[in-house]
Specification:
Elements lengths: L11 H11 L2 H15 L10 H11 L5 H13 L6 H21 L7 H12 L34 H14 L7 H18 L6 H14 L9 H4 L1 H10 L14 H12 L12 E2 L2 E2 L8
Helix pairs in contact: 1-2, 1-3, 2-3, 2-5, 3-4, 4-5, 5-6, 6-9, 7-8, 8-12, 11-12
Length: 293
């Protein structure tokens, strides 16, 4: 049986980057999808297994299709009824990663709250009992980047209406004639807004990321760098900073850090994406350095 723990001396990125270096279009596209899918598990501190990586390789090489890859991961864990706690976390990472790779590989998309909700359902069915269901209670979350403070999320009573409002406003917005940098800034703000609603009990950041990747592709963007694969925790922390104000401590909500992420993702910029630059500490705010050219 394959050892399910990753080899620390050879991270999973190296294995998948080999397919990208080979430059075969089919393999390259699938490799980017898997890199993103695996990297996004970091937003919740989850690590995928060697078994998932080997399955991903078989899919990239064309030995199996994506449906078979997803089913193989699901069946692997369904056959293992008794698991240690750390393996339960690995199960979530593996199963969700396989589903993300599947969703990202599909040439389908509809810009609507229903699509957003369906993505959550597809990613987390069988993992969370509330998959695809809107949150029915109010939440707070202690954030490392806020020194233990929380973002103010949407009230459970307003989730549906707020989602519909944000989506309708974005649908009416015209990108025609807008400079690319301004378009990216607007997309970052929209991402921040729908994430702040936090419509689900768990899995909001991964769902938001998958939805936005699909949405960005409708604009013709090629989502092919390593921003989500290597900096998914930064992505989440940037969303936190975009939705937190504390005027007494001179802390203001800003999409600046999220814009750095999107500029790297979409425009080929090379901002240094370090989580420590986002940490707030009383009146002191660690600023991000200028872009590395």
């Amino acid at each position: 049986m394959i050892n399910k723990k990753q080899n620390a001396s050879k991270p999973w990125q190296f294995d998948l980057e080999e397919y990208i270096r080979q430059g075969e279009p089919g393999k390259t596209e699938k490799s980017y999808a898997w890199k993103t899918a695996i990297g996004l598990q970091d937003v919740d501190g989850l690590e995928t297994s060697q078994y998932l990586l080997e399955t991903a390789k078989e899919h990239i090489e064309g030995t199996i299709d994506i449906a078979t890859a997803r089913n193989r991961i699901d069946q692997y864990y369904e056959c293992r009824r008794e698991r240690e706690e750390d393996e339960q976390e690995t199960e979530e990472a593996d199963r969700v990663a396989a589903r993300i790779a599947e969703v990202l590989g599909e040439k389908t998309f509809q810009f609507s709250p229903a699509e957003f909700i369906m993505i959550h359902k597809r990613l987390f069915s069988g993992i969370y009992h509330h998959a695809g269901m809107l949150r029915t209670y109010n939440i707070t979350k202690k954030e490392w980047v806020l020194q233990g403070e929380t973002v103010l999320y949407a009230s459970a009573d307003s989730i549906k209406a707020t989602l519909e409002y944000d989506f309708s406003r974005e649908k009416e917005f015209s990108y025609q004639g807008l400079p690319l940098a301004e378009a990216v800034r607007h997309l970052a703000k929209f991402t921040s807004d729908i994430w702040q609603i936090h419509p689900f009990c768990e899995g909001n950041t991964r769902t938001t990321a998958v939805f936005m990747i699909k949405y960005l592709k409708t604009f013709g963007f090629s989502i092919s760098n390593d921003a989500f694969a290597d900096h998914s925790w930064y992505f989440r922390n940037a969303l936190v900073r975009a939705n937190y104000n504390h005027l007494e401590k001179r802390i203001h909500a800003t999409t600046e850090y999220l814009e750095y992420f999107f500029e790297n993702l979409l425009l080929g910029a090379q901002h240094e994406l370090k989580n420590r630059y986002l940490v707030v500490n009383g009146e002191k705010i660690f600023q991000s350095p200028p872009m590395v050219l």
